[in-house]
Structures are given as C-alpha cells and as structure tokens.
C-alpha cells in the first residue's frame, strides 16, 4: 500500500499547521476536576461536568464521564492506551476511538472522501456508512451486493473523472452473515488506484488468528489502508474506532465532526475494552467456542452450505420471507423462553424478513440445544 494516496491529506494537515490550526490529542490522567499532564497537576476548567457528577464517579474504580470532547480534555490515558492496543492488533501506524461505531463509520465516510472524489458503496452496507456517504461532498454510487463485476465496469468508465476513489464495504454483513469479497475488492482497488475502507464491526474479536477481523482472516490487512470497528459487539464494551496510517488518523482528529464535536468515550468503556482485548489474546478458546457453536447451529438447522469462513460467523439468519410470519415465529420462540429477533423491512429488503440468531461463547450447550429444539417445534 502506497502512502502517496494520502498526500492530499498530508498537504491539508501541513496547511493547518502553517495557520496554527492543527490539533492533537493530549493525554490527561483524570482526577476529578484536576488531571495530571506531563507530570504536573492541572485544575480543569475545560470540562462539561457542570454539576460535578462525573468527578464523583471518578472516585470509583471505573470512571463514568469523560467530561468533554477528545480535543478539549476528554482524551485520557485510558483512551490513549486503548488506541495503542487497537493499532497493535490491526498492525497500523495509529488508531483513534469514537463514542460509537456509528460515529466512527459515518464520520470517516463524511470526512475522508472530498469534492471531486467518488465513493463506491455496497448496497447492503450499514446505515452508518450510508449516512456518512450522504454527508460527504463526494459523488457516491451504490453497487449491487458483492457484485465485483459491476464495480469493475463502473471504474472502467468513471475512474478518470475523479481525483480519488473510495471503495467502502462491511466485512461481515450484519443481517446475512455474508463476507465481502475482500481479495477481489483489493485487486480492483490496486488496478484503478482506489482506496479500500472496511468496516469490521461484526468481525472484530471473532475472525482471524488474533481476532482482528476478516481482513486478517483473508490476509489482506496490508492492502486495506483504513479499517473501522466497534467496541460494542464481540469486545463487549461501547464505542468505535478507526485504524490506519498516521496521516489518516491525524486528518480525522482535525476534521472529523463526529469525533471533534462529541463527548469522548466514557473512561469506563475504554477500560472495559482494554480488558477485553487482553482476553482476546489470552483466551483464544473464546473464539474457538463461538465458531464451533455457529457451525453446530447451522448444521442442526440444516441451513444451506456456506464457505468455511462464513460458517464461523456467529450471525445466523433463518430466512422466513413474510414480515408477519417472522414476528409470529419470534413471538412463539419467546413464549418458549428464547429471544430471537425478527428482522423486517426497512432493515432488510421486502420479502426477506428473517429471524437472526446470534450465538455467543457464553451460551451453554444446553442453551443451544434448547434453541434448536424450540425452532424445530415452531417452524
């Protein structure tokens, strides 16, 4: 991956520096309405903790309120440690954490593509990506789900009209459990000098030897410069992140509105996420367990065969079709003691309503067996 693709971002950052408008995240160690910075105790008059309630919480072992946006004084040593942990896991130069995965996706796609650029977005991408593309000043073309032939045809005719091209996709599609054709997308990106942005929300912590996601599992990490993830799914905390080249992360810190104008992630959530990432490495049996359960459920329900990697995904759609039927089945399972949500339009296309089973390493064999029995009873 050539960093020359991001020269325009570096020039923009240089211009901000020339004007004295460049920003950076300053790590502060919170202690109520004071904090430690560079070895000194500082009294904090920059916080939004108007009633002092957050600093009361900070007297506990788990801090609740961050007190401000990341660029004001809400970036603590916990945030810094979490960002470093993510960057190491993702094998990138840097990372930054957001208050939510939605903010990470929408903000990134609204910020990196600019006027004169083109965004190519899979039609089943998450709503946060869709909204970010709409907010961007770039043109956007939505291509059919995982249709790389159409994508290539679009670029063959349109590439010369644009300065930069951004191809964005979920790695694991949340309603189907499909995996994006990342190898093909990277090949196309390299052919047409485009950037690939991948949202690993449902793959982080689950796929790959170290749990960093589908890009790791498919060995394309070095070919995907910008990767987005969430801390609220497999990581079991809250928030989102973007990992990538230092210039990209610095540009987001300086330009991304969902980062700049949001109160930063709760320190309690950052601590929880750090602990989860540590467990991710020390307890690989958790990933093995959830993978085994996903495969077992598919087998017991006699679902159509999928690839080995897709079989490991803990999202298992049980296709129903009609909305009413899906809600009826979900209600019947609830009466038997099992909550399996009905997913209906507009979340999914008309005529494709389904039950979405999400398995967890925390589910016992008895729980899974009971679910299978209940599903076979009601359908």
Automatic annotation (TrEMBL):
Family: Belongs to the class-II pyridoxal-phosphate-dependent aminotransferase family. BioF subfamily.
PROSITE patterns: AA_TRANSFER_CLASS_2 (PS00599)
Pfam families: Aminotran_1_2
Domain Aminotransferase class I/classII large, chain residue ranges per copy: 42-375
Keywords for the protein's UniProt record, in alphabetical order: Acyltransferase, Biotin biosynthesis, Pyridoxal phosphate, Transferase
Phosphoprotein keyword on record: no
EC number: 2.3.1.47
Protein name: 8-amino-7-oxononanoate synthase
Cofactors that this protein relies on: pyridoxal 5'-phosphate
Catalyzed reactions per annotation: 6-carboxyhexanoyl-[ACP] + L-alanine + H(+) = (8S)-8-amino-7-oxononanoate + holo-[ACP] + CO2
Subunit structure: Homodimer.
SUPFAM superfamilies: PLP-dependent transferases (SSF53383)
Underlying gene: bioF
Entry-linked Gene3D superfamilies: Aspartate Aminotransferase, domain 1, Type I PLP-dependent aspartate aminotransferase-like (Major domain)
Pathway assignment: Cofactor biosynthesis; biotin biosynthesis
A GO BP annotation: biotin biosynthetic process
PANTHER family: 8-AMINO-7-OXONONANOATE SYNTHASE, CLASS II AMINOTRANSFERASE/8-AMINO-7-OXONONANOATE SYNTHASE
Gene Ontology terms, MF aspect: 8-amino-7-oxononanoate synthase activity; pyridoxal phosphate binding
């Amino acid at each position: 991956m050539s960093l020359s693709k991001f020269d325009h971002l570096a020039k923009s950052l240089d211009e901000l520096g020339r004007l004295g408008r460049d920003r950076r995240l300053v790590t502060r160690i919170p202690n109520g309405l004071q904090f430690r910075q560079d070895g000194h105790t500082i009294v904090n008059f920059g916080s939004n903790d108007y009633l002092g309630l957050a600093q009361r919480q900070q007297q506990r072992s788990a801090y609740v309120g961050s007190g401000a946006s990341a660029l004001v004084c809400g970036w603590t040593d916990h945030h810094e440690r979490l960002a470093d942990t993510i960057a190491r896991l993702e094998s990138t130069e840097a990372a930054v954490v957001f208050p939510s995965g939605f903010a990470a996706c929408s903000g990134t796609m609204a910020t990196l593509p600019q006027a004169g650029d083109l965004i190519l977005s899979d039609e089943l991408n998450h709503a946060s990506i869709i909204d970010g593309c709409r907010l961007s000043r770039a043109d956007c073309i939505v291509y059919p789900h995982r249709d790389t032939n159409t994508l290539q045809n679009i670029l063959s005719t349109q590439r010369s009209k644009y300065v930069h091209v951004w191809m964005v996709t979920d790695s694991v599609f949340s309603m189907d459990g499909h995996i994006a054709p990342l190898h093909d997308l990277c090949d196309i990106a390299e052919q047409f000098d485009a950037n690939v942005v991948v949202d690993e929300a449902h793959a982080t912590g689950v796929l790959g030897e170290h749990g960093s996601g589908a890009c790791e599992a498919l060995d394309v990490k070095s070919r995907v410069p910008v990767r987005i993830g969430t801390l609220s799914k497999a990581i079991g905390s809250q928030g989102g992140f973007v990992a990538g080249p230092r210039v990209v992360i610095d540009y987001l810190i300086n330009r991304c509105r969902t980062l700049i104008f949001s109160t930063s992630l709760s320190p309690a959530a950052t601590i929880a996420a750090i602990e989860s990432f540590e467990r991710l490495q020390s307890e690989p049996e958790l990933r093995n367990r959830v993978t085994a359960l996903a495969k077992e459920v598919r087998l017991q329900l006699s679902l159509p065969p999928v690839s080995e990697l897709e079989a490991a995904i803990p999202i298992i759609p049980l296709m129903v079709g009609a909305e009413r039927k899906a809600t009826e089945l979900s209600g019947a399972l609830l009466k038997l003691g099992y909550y399996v949500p009905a997913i209906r339009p507009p979340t999914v296309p008309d005529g494709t309503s389904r039950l979405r089973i999400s398995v967890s390493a925390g589910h016992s064999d008895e729980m899974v067996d009971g679910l299978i029995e209940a599903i076979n009873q009601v359908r």
